[in-house]
Amino acid sequence: MKKELLAPAGDIEAGYAALYYGADAVYLGLRQFSARATAANFDEQALNEFTAYAHSLGRKVYAAVNTLVQEDELDDLLRTLDMCAKYGVDAVIIQDMGVAEIIREHYPELEMHASTQMAVHNKEGALALQKMGFSRVVLARELSLPEIREIAAIPGLETEAFIHGALCYSYSGVCLFSSLETGKSANRGKCLYPCRAAFHGSCGEKHYFSMKDMALQEDVLKMPVTSLKIEGRKKTALYVAAVTDYYRRILDGKGADEKRAENIRQIFSRPWTKFHFNGKNKDVIDRDFVGHRGLKIGQISRLEKGRFFIKTNHKIARYDGIQIDVAGEEKPFGFSLQMLRVNGKNVFEAKPGETAEIRLPAGAPGLECGWSVYLASSSEVKGAYPFAKPRPGEYKRREEIEVILKVSAGEIAASAAGKTAALTGTFMPAKDAAKTESAVKAAFGKTGDTELALKAVIIDNPDGRFVPVSMLNELRRKLYSQIETMSKQGQMTPVKPRKLPEKAQWLIKTDQPECLSQTDLSRVAEVVVLLDRETDIEKIAALPKNKVRLALPTVCRHPQIFEKQIKTLLGMGYKKWEIGNYWGLSVLPEKGIDLSFDASLYVMNTQAVRMAEACGAGRVCAALEDDLKNIRELSLSSPLPVCMVVYQDVPLFTSADCIRDNACKDCSRGEKWLELSRGGVKYKALSKDCQIMLFDERPLCLAAEAGSVPADYYRADFCHKKYSPEEVKNIFAKLQAFEDAEDCRKGNAVRPSLL
User: What is the pTM of this model?
Assistant: First the structure.
């Protein structure tokens, strides 16, 4: 099977570069609903021209409409999907279930790809999304080759996997760090990457979560997936060209060219890693430095005042960019090479193996012998990737129309695509009716910069009347203008809101049933118990059975570990279940259970509620990063009951990348808490079973605001962190009185909007 090489395009130039250097498909973002909102992205004209050009080459274009959508944005979403349908994009990449629901009903011509933001990390999740109508799933980057093979073997489902580029510390789609800390949501395309920052921890001030870059290189040939994806919608056209060219050659059997790999490192690169492709790997984090490093060309061998010497292993030239690792600094020290000497003589370039003398700029930090030196940009490489592109406007998708022109003594009228334009006047019989017919065809054939193409003109002129060319042109402009501005917007399926309860009920969620021993459960509608592999079923059985709902975790690489638990609990008569990821749909019965969707499934609009209902859910939970305005609107409009979490120790991220100091072979893999801090904020990281979860020391608490939200249920969560029975009793009593817990945080609830 020929594998698709899929390249990124943050703008049209990068898209043209990708096509020129051999991409089989390009993925891009539009001006709204793009998970790379700060990239240039594509407006309507650019989408039209680029898609038409790509299709002329036999290549594909995928549009990333992969952010969460709030209720008041649904009309804008429809306009975005209209563009995708109008210009014939080959697929839409999606995170929000509401987007999928609208496409399924109103844009069946659009193929759906499940974004990596949907956190597809096991076969069960992929199967669930296939059943929902997705033709392709983009796999979590954390997967090993055997795990990728298992998902790729699903009949009739395409798979896409990342092969090169930046890595997130968290599983994509389950990170709330940027959102809750700054209001800039990764799930809304505005991530500020707080994980890249330095934290104080057990090893001092380090970048404990700052990832290296993925570079699978020739291992891509082992990939059994449909599509091999390069990350980089915020990268330059030069970067896209270089990386696409590098992997095109590998896929074409020409091998991994080391010079081309060096070019990529010079253009932009953190240190490279295979990530977990070959199994668990701790060498994935760069604790000491962040950002672009470049190509290592040697070490400082000698220092003199204002200059240093290096025996370079790579050609360097004047005006190249140089970077040096400086101990204690987050980023390398960089400067443009203005003076270069070899053997005491000024030279333009130094060859590999030569000892170069490099002058430092004013204000350079103190350096030491042995420090690493990098070539961070090269004038030669900047000119090494030229690419051809079409003239602006040369390619454009056009809508074919048939124009009907009617001529009478006092009026001419033209109709096409359901629109009509007319002009009044006095129209006399023509001396040569054939010339009038030719003039009509010529006038309406001038489609110019419009997105229309004239298929045919039908002339209804029984008396052979003459129409001046100037009036034909005016009529054409008037008609075509109406067609061009005609809304093609799909219709939103009306949603009938449920009847709101007179008073909301309270829920408690915990992974420690014993912590509820002092809480009056008669005041609780449900106790939601979060399962893990060590859950004691006897402790669940001690709770009032009619009030128990069982919850599956959001991230689970091996769902089979829950098979016995699920079977046992179903056999004991537990019919209420909750899921936090789509894999839960595949391991629970389709019928005979009461299913709820947790906050990690990000239900933020009524169309997402409709999709949840179609999947069997009887209740949804508002997203933890949503704002109060949207939660209120969702609660008022939702056809299903809505739960609002009012207290939780929120996992800011969940990661497969261990930050313990010990080696894997020396690890018990048991529960271990690590303390970190940054900017006066204290965090706790839970390391357990090769998974890391980060928590702010302060819980999220919205009790004071909850009374203004007409939810069906309010929920208090006591998971992950250890709570005593007395703590739970006291905190829960305050929450039920709509009083905040002490020293809490509000996330996006009191911000004016989710940015």
Answer: 0.92
